[in-house]
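INFO  loader      accepted 1 record
INFO  loader      residues=477
INFO  predictor   begin
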Amino acid sequence: MKLILWILASSVLLSLSCAQTQLKGYMDANSELRRVPNANTSADPSIALGRFAVIQGPTSSAEANFSLISPRYKDYTYILVDSSGREITRVSPYEVVSQANYSFWKIDKFHFANLNPNTEYGFHVVEKKADEIKNSIDFRTFKTFDKNMTRARFVVGSCSADDERFASVRKSIWSRVVEHNPDFIIMNGDVVYVDSFEFVKREDKIHKIQEWEIWGRYMDSFRTLEIFRSKKLFPIIANWDDHDMGTNNSDITFSGREHAKRIFKALFHAPNIDGIFKQGEGVSSSYSLFGQKFLVMDGRYFRQPPGTQNEPYGHLGKKQHEWLIAELKHDTAPTWLIMGDQFFMNLVEVEDKGKKKVVNETFFGDHPVNFENFLKDVKQNAAPVVFVSGDVHFSEISAVPASYLGYSTYEITASPYHSYIFGGKSWENPNRIVDYKEHNFVFIEAEVTDLKLKAKVRAVGSNAMTLFEKDIEVSKP
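INFO  predictor   done
INFO  writer      dumping tokens
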């Protein structure tokens, strides 16, 4: 591990020595440091929308969980139907989550069980328990998984601003996602921009963000984004990053982190499903699907503030670190390690208006000691891993040399679905294989054979064009 630390430290020095070069490419190459969406989207992309914002959460071959944003004084009933429209059963929410102060909206959490694998279903929303299907006020379709399948098709991305200026690209992006018909969608951080400048001030020593502000921004965003209103639902695996928790570069000192965790878990989590889904520490979670494991790592709830580089658990917290490693030890399935900020990238420092400024956050850059410990523990496990990150408003694939874990692997960064694109080129990364700076999502087709993970990784733009594509293969010797 001393060799790894030397390599990482050398990389930091290289990064900082290149800061002025990066400044020219990153800050000065374009007079507009932030720009609105690329207008090069196809004509009239469409996505069939329902009335309510709905999330299909943890799903297996026999059950499915849902969260629906409902008017606070309405008590809906949910009617499950088969593909022919025949009623199977009807349920009421098993839990209702609301906000104590100001809000017009609550979250209905409901669940269907005794389903058949790999089968399409639908559900109707009715206002009275005895209402017939003809009285439906909303309808959605969804599908269960087949636990025996080992080939997954999924979408991954991050950064989905609900700002009105992104309305066009937002519609295009989510239409493309639906067209790809993935098995599930990964929303990897900045799903919600709580601290949007229009509605909520970023927290400082004087101003503290209120619970109702966090709740309100989640309600606004989820009722705006087309993917949550899509008539065809897809299971969503979600993670958060700084803006979901509530303010820029959020950490353990943020006053609203408990409020944010409560609403995030209310929307995306559900009771554990044996062998499929497990809640972890913070908002972390574990999914076992298609012969693969998806470990969602919370890089915010336990995160120590800047200046804590030597903290042994400064990024993940001790409880989460131990939980994640225990999950890796639990089986030998190839694993996707998913976190909002990047794993291996250095901190990038530029000069802005005469002052030096770090423009990114990373596991290695912010907490190198925790990063070293984490890599050491990951290396001891039988499961080969691939790293997945977001946050930086461009997408890339980077090589992770065998010197880190004893075998070669990759970090796949996917960002943004729809948010600002910053001027200039992407910052320098000596391990980068390919990158593209545009609104996009990454579509991955992954299959497991004899503990070897093979995947086709493709970045797709809002105009449906392939921005980059690469086949990867990862296994332990």
